[in-house]
Amino acid sequence: SDFDKMAVGLLLLLCTVSALGQTQYNWPYPQSNWPYSGPSASAKKWYDEAKFGLFIHWGPISQWGDDLSWPLYCPEFPCQVQSVNHTLINITTIDQLALHRKAYWNLANTFNPTKFNPQNMARIAKRAGFKYVVFVTEHCDGFCNYNTSYSQYNSLNTPYGKDIFAMISEAFRAEGIRIGAYYCPSLWNNPNYWIPDPLTAMPQQGCQPNYAPQNNLVQWKTYLKHIHNQIRELAENYKPDVFWIDCQNAPPALDLQIESLAPLARRMNPDVMITQRWVGLIQDFITMDDQTVNMTRNILGLAGMTAGAKFEVCTTMGTDGQWGYNPYANYKSARRIILDLISVVSKGGNYLLNLGPGPDGLWDEKAIEILETVSSWMEINSDAIFGTQPVFPFQYSVTTSFLPTYQTFPDFFLTMKEKTMYVMMPSMDDVLPEWVIFPWLRPDLLGEDVNFTSVDLMGYGSNVEWRQTHGGLE
């Protein structure tokens, strides 16, 4: 049907032009100003072309169906924390909090995802168009999904007993998908970061340590050695294509000094891209979370391009914003996912979509069905996404004619690859409009030497009737 070819209600035109200047990137920080070497040209190239990444948050907490780490967080008494199946419990005393945290950390003793099949995950991901995966090797709770010599709290010391990150790496790389390692350097199970003595601990503030590092330099340096050893392990043993460092918000005077490990990571893999989320000297790209994805429809892309920054937007597949597995999740529709992907990519960004497995190791079947719909769209329209560059203006309004009625859509999106411009427009239903008028696709905006030589509707394989006027492309 027409709706199948349009795939989740998106009209996509392929326009061949005689000439068009493309927006080019300056990366966030000029390499000459870095204390350490920046990303290689080949690293920037693959990452810029990839566009679509898969985020996987997972760990023993999936048995509770709660988010990773945050059920441990209690900044002051009384507080409410998540427990089994999203149950909120009130914590009023130090002893209550200690018992709750012990129950959380003891989930590793029953973690046994016997149905985990990373090969099948990788096949699903490849069909959906994911070009790289960022896997949570270690979140703030300190559980390591990899073989580490520096912590006994890892996946090999569970009933499952396997190196999960190694399994993910092998399976996804076999499908041609690049591998990223998420690492949180703010480890709440480490006594040199969160001191266990409640009488001397400071009130918790986000991911920061619960003591003053400047007053405890020996303890702080011991902690720095620990996280540096773990990052070195990941670089040497797994050689990730992306190092995604989260929660880097120690006091500036006592930085975590992760940038000192960048040369090692680049020696192990010259194509590695490194980011320290929010702050830090190493930002090969700027990453923003779920709450900013809607902003990409207006000022985010323009501001990013003006600053010369390559950016990534990470978001959850669930509508509730939970990163870990949620057995009660409601998922974003395929249409919503594709619209967000298009919105981000059309402004020069990458889109990192999160889906965490359950305690048995499987993705929710409802989520897989949505990804299969995304796969169907990708089969027809992926050329408009991968390896493209943004075109200024990033998006503007469009008028359609259904003869005799006219309707204005809120926006359309542009990408460019060589001499092909892709015009993506949300459609209202499964009826193709008689005429579509793109008032911003005209020479005085795109350049006087721009001339359209052909226009096709992707998925139909034949030219459509069109005309180029001073008022735009019709």
N-to-C span = 24 Å
Largest sheet at a glance? 8 strands, parallel
Question: What is the overall silhouette?
Answer: elongated
Widest β-sheet, arrangement of strands? 8-7-6-5-2-11-10-9
Report the radius of gyration as a whole number of Å: 24 Å
Query: Structural class from helices and strands?
Result: alpha/beta
Q: What do the pLDDT scores average to?
A: 83
In terms of DSSP E residues, the strand content is 15-25%
- Per DSSP E runs of 2 or more residues, the count of β-strands stands at 18
Enumerate how many helices there are, as a single number: 11
Could you characterize what this model shows?
This protein has 474 residues and is an alpha/beta fold. Helices cover 25% and strands 21% of the residues. The chain is built from eleven helices and 18 strands. The strands form four sheets. Strands 8-7-6-5-2-11-10-9 form an eight-stranded parallel beta sheet, with helices on both faces. A hairpin with a 2-residue loop joins β13 and β14 (420-426). α9 (334-345) crosses α10. The protein is elongated, with a radius of gyration of 24 Å. The relative contact order is 0.18.
List keywords for this structure.
474 residues, alpha/beta, eight-stranded parallel sheet, six-stranded antiparallel sheet, 11 helices, 18 strands
